[in-house]
Amino acid sequence: MPTLERHDDVFFLDLGGGENRLHPDWLTEVDAALDEVEKAEGPRALVTAATGKIYSNGLDLDWLFAHPEEHPDYVARVQDLLARMLSLPVFTVAAVQGHAFAAGAMLSLAHDVRVMRADRGFWCLPEADINIPFTPGMSALIQARLAPQVAHVAMTTGRRYGGTDAAAAGIVDQAVPEDDVRPTAVEIAAAQAAKAAHPTLGTIKSRLYAPVLDLLRERG
Amino acid sequence: MPTLERHDDVFFLDLGGGENRLHPDWLTEVDAALDEVEKAEGPRALVTAATGKIYSNGLDLDWLFAHPEEHPDYVARVQDLLARMLSLPVFTVAAVQGHAFAAGAMLSLAHDVRVMRADRGFWCLPEADINIPFTPGMSALIQARLAPQVAHVAMTTGRRYGGTDAAAAGIVDQAVPEDDVRPTAVEIAAAQAAKAAHPTLGTIKSRLYAPVLDLLRERG
Amino acid sequence: MPTLERHDDVFFLDLGGGENRLHPDWLTEVDAALDEVEKAEGPRALVTAATGKIYSNGLDLDWLFAHPEEHPDYVARVQDLLARMLSLPVFTVAAVQGHAFAAGAMLSLAHDVRVMRADRGFWCLPEADINIPFTPGMSALIQARLAPQVAHVAMTTGRRYGGTDAAAAGIVDQAVPEDDVRPTAVEIAAAQAAKAAHPTLGTIKSRLYAPVLDLLRERG
């Protein structure tokens, strides 16, 4: 389960030590953590990461197949999380220490900056292979954060990007050795913490992604 | 005239051995070929290429000047082809073995991936020089597929990109020696053929380019 | 105050030798210069530059704080200038010989091409630090001209890009030694001067940025 700690101006959200799929309970915990980050005052920033080989494997498909009647509500909750992270009024850095797949990869894209482990782990959108099309909101999120052909290839081929490839494609901002992932993310976040003292950062992000946020919050 | 062949999972559409301008009869033949590709079932992908020095020189201006009253219908047909290729539910690769100019260059952009000959041939949008503005749909297509300043420079200056320049600018995905253009395109296409067995790929592309497709299909 | 000269086919607009902030009188002078450029006929292009260490530092905040009741009208005038430059029917090159900050940086983005001094001067959007959110129109302008993550980082962190960094990020097209800034800009502009002899170039730009122009011209 996700846990939140604070060191100086940087909140650190550990997404968990397993697959860190977006189970409804996991979403509730992450939302509560983001409430705490938002509610705090003064300079602050957020780093998310996980322990082990996986950052997040995305939707909890086992739970979803067991609760098909909850499909629309569940997707709405996932989209709400993506929208919230994308417009969070504090600076956010994803420390991608392991695999980021599907909605886990999208969650990383909703952060301001991504630092990824260089030598192991993949960032991947396997939707075209597993026969789950992106919702319009998810599609818009990915397009808004990546160069056109990078988004196209990632979304239509399911290509797996290692850290170095992901950095070359601009999917992540930096690929670094394993031991540097978290410290680099914290350093970047700490340098931007002062911006959360006033609401401008949140306004800037909300205007940057207004059409994406509208689509993510649209209810069918 | 365009001809369609199939080798294993890869359809190969030869656009012709001349200028391969988008004459109404040429459009009819290409549409029939795409019908056959769509109608087929199971794993399949599409490679387009031409023989000779030209991939396609774009609109058939001679025909158009001789049939000015058909201008709106003709442009609508060209835009329909671009929209169809952009959202085709099979993976598409343009093997650009020679010049791709104007609507011929746009047709290449409507494919999922482009492989271009490195040492000869230009990819070029000469519209600003020949005094033919891009339609809103064509403008949106180009912008959706290229980095912002690449689209801007290509569209406002009519710069001619050789294969190596086009690859550096992200206009094409790879620039390779002449003899490798077709095999490389076929290899890329074959690797994605399995995706056409279910409708997800078409849905992904249609959502990626929903606003572009709307503009291309808009009638005046 | 801004001054306009013409050498052969290239108009040269000197934005001034100070901070070149967008004071209302400065806006009036620049508008008059652009009237002259538009009114002229035949081949022509425009280079803007300044003298000294600053290209433009953006909004005239001193004047604005002294005239708070004019805030909406003032912002509307600035947005009109950005929209006008973005869609000017002649080719435009910004010769960024010194600092381009905030609305001064945005003004440079409204040109077709940017040439920047390599070794001194910064291109910077400090809005997140000085607590002035981008208007929706300004936000759209920046996003339409830069790669997604470049726009995001520039807008959310206030990062200062020197010429070489700005060129690497695609914010400017070239970074060159100080003495080459103006000659390079003039050479690029002169090569495109012939395009201004017919209205196609203006139509191309207006269609490329139709949604941005709508937002910039929107009145609250």
Automatic annotation (TrEMBL), chains A, B, C:
SUPFAM superfamilies: ClpP/crotonase (SSF52096). Gene3D superfamilies: 2-enoyl-CoA Hydratase, Chain A, domain 1 (3.90.226.10). Keywords: Lipid metabolism. Pfam families: ECH_1. InterPro entries: ClpP/crotonase-like_dom_sf (IPR029045), Enoyl-CoA_hydra/iso (IPR001753). The keyword Lipid metabolism applies. It comes from the Bacteria. One of its GO terms (molecular function) is delta(3)-delta(2)-enoyl-CoA isomerase activity. GO terms for biological process: fatty acid beta-oxidation. This is Enoyl-CoA hydratase/carnithine racemase.
